[in-house]
Amino acid sequence: MTQKEKLVLVGNGMAGVNAVEHLLKLAPDKYEVTIFGSEPHPNYNRILLSYVLSGDSKVEDIVIHPYEWYRNNHITLYTNQTVTGIDTAAQTVTSDKGVTVSYDKLILATGSNPFMIPMPGADKEGVMAYRTIRDCEIMMESAKKYKKAVVIGGGLLGLEAARGFLNLGMKVDVVHITDSIMDRQLDRTASKMLQAALEEQGINFLLAKQSAEIVGHKRVTGLKFKDGTMTEADLVVMAVGIRPNVELAKNSGVTCNPGIIVNDYMQTNVPNVYAVGECAMHRGVAYGLVAPLYEQGAVLAKHLAGVETGPYEGSVLYTKLKVSGVDVFSGGKFGDEEGTKAIRIHDEFTGVYKKVVIKDNKIVGAVLFGDTADGTRLMQMIREETDVSGMAKTAILTDSASGGGAASGVADMKDDAIICGCNGVTKGAICSAIKDQGLTSVEEVKNCTTASRSCGGCKPLVSDLLAFTLGSSYDKNAAKESICSCTEHTRDEVVEAIREKGLSHVREVMSVLDWKNEEGCSKCRPALNYYLGMISPETYKDDSTSRFVNERMHANIQKDGTYSVVPRIYGGVTNPTELKRIAEVAEQFNVPTVKFTGGQRLDLLGVKKEDLTAMWEALDMPSGYAYGKALRTVKTCVGDTFCRFGTGDSMAVGIELEKRFERLNAPAKVKLAVSGCPRNCAESGIKDLGIVSVDGGWELYAGGNGGVKVRVGELLTTVKTEQDIIEYTEAYLQYYRETGKYGERTSEWVHRLGIEHIRDVVENEEERKQLCDRIEQALAVTKDPWKQAIDSKKIQRDLYEVVELT
């Protein structure tokens, strides 16, 4: 048996691990692989950190390669260890924990470091970068204590950080040195359109400002500019760029200027030492976008596998992503330079802007805002220097230019065209997987290749590739999306089987429907538990082991192992007696932090697990379900009770709604709001259901969302009375419960089903009555989980008592 060569990868990030993954597919038995990572996590998608910061995703949701992947591929992984020395003569690496490993081939994928502006006060407490999961955790901790954040840098990273702070309830300023945000990726028109969209979300921009000094004593209190003005700040985040992380390479005799110098096969000047990713400098360029890094990794993997490959000759830069819910794309040279002409489409009504720059009858650059469907095709034309002299110029921005719709559009792409920029998946890889693995749906392609697993922006192209590869046998409208990789069954098939076969518990569903993984997973088990309870509310016994830890404990676990307790405050309206009781309980249990939430409630943070049930009993208030896929809050303004503009009693309506639906389980969290007039102080337009008082009645807005994927609610219906509000809300929520996918917010559900369809259902008197009857059955059997835990010694013993090990 041939002895395997030893391959060591320094850096557990996206570029390096992707290269190793590619290498293992080409030559699975050639190398014994060891990977060192400085962070205490497996390989994760840094692009999606903003989703973690905003609370829309957890750390485990953005992991690309879980620990099982390393084990299954026999990779030795050292996390939380930084390689501090390389002996290039002995061919060994040594970590800061004293681990020494020998290598035959060494890949340096040390990435980059955030650039920190060397200004006075930059070393103060509260000044930080935004680059890692730990950075996200610090930001989230800060948001619990402080009110105002300032982000220096109006690029993608800075904007996503700002959006995250908004979601965390902080006010935020974005400071940028020029007068246009994302000026390296967008032209001025697209930049101003993006700025307007983000200002509507609540971000304040301070443009054409040069930072001069961070002020404050020990901790930052503000940022001073060179023009003499200043802005207050409790936290300053610098997102102004990155620098290749080359200290290790430089100390080991590897040539750097400023990145690690590599040739077209990613080789350094030292034998058997390679570099890939943001740390590498190729032909004078260090790339900071994921697609070029994956292109580098593909060449490196083939070279190490001994497979014939052409050289890496550099990349044409492009960006296709979502910035706080807005689709943007840019590629090539999109500025109005001498000798260029541009084709522009600017639709101010729909918020769509498209620009293609042409020079010498070739497309050299493009900017798309609001609709990026043409991005991949235009990028291919830029790369291939396609002659467009024979094309109708207005057709360049439509699929008609390719001569026959979406399928022919992807047919013209080369196999190495990157379809999924987030995960570096090419057309060839997707088509091969479809053929070889018999894939028939976007969900199956996602599970097999990771294409569309991140932001999901490439799903339409993946669907087009399925149509191109499978031909008439592929039905785009009937494409199945299984609820997880444990099964081929869709949500609708599972729900139908539960109803038809009378299935009554989670394991029975998995057994009868031939689950691939008989234990299920963290995605399907909670979903099955919800569907069973939704279908049979009166008879189903909830399976707490199939719930996430927060729902099982009925409190949100914090990073230090303590919990947060949020009692129910109906409609955000309380009284002195209740407030006094909360304060006394907080003192009794030494609660370190009490915070007002964005939903007009009080959050008691830092509670020990063993104190939870005693605290709940002392509070004598119902659970606020701040942890659950259920009704969270009903936000209200003061309405006509106090406000001179008010036309409706928003507080009374909000309290009635919250008391009616306070323990209602749903596919995802649900937030309501009631505004007493069209001034909309309760932000009803961005809630799952928003109610607004107008002359002569109330307007109901459905499917709003104030998170990363911001969505303004659509008018569902207008009603006359407060009783009508309750009835239509019952029908709307029950229809969502019955047709929504587990984990799907109403914003996604309304978009998927269409507001017209949902309106037809809830305005149909017979259907509305039936939905109201079914939600009544579900509400009739709900019980307050805090009260249940207080009354049950078994629950206290099983979940909340701390067992000391001796």
TrEMBL record:
Q: Which InterPro entries match?
A: BFD-like_2Fe2S-bd_dom, BFD-like_2Fe2S-bd_dom_sf, FAD/NAD-bd_sf, FAD/NAD-binding_dom, FAD/NAD-linked_Rdtase_dimer_sf, NasD-like, NiRdtase/SiRdtase_haem-b_fer, Nit/Sulf_reduc_fer-like_dom_sf
How cofactor binds (record note)? Binds 1 [4Fe-4S] cluster per subunit. Binds 1 siroheme per subunit.
**From the Swiss-Prot or TrEMBL record, what is one GO molecular function term?**
4 iron, 4 sulfur cluster binding
Residues covered by the Nitrite/sulphite reductase 4Fe-4S domain:
628-768
- Which cofactor(s) are needed, names only? [4Fe-4S] cluster; FAD; [2Fe-2S] cluster; siroheme
Q: Where does siroheme bind?
A: 681
- Involved pathway(s): Nitrogen metabolism; nitrate reduction (assimilation)
> Family, per the entry?
Belongs to the nitrite and sulfite reductase 4Fe-4S domain family.
Can you name this protein? Nitrite reductase large subunit
* Annotated residues for binding of [4Fe-4S] cluster: 637, 643, 677, 681
Q: Where is the NADH-rubredoxin oxidoreductase C-terminal domain?
A: 319-385
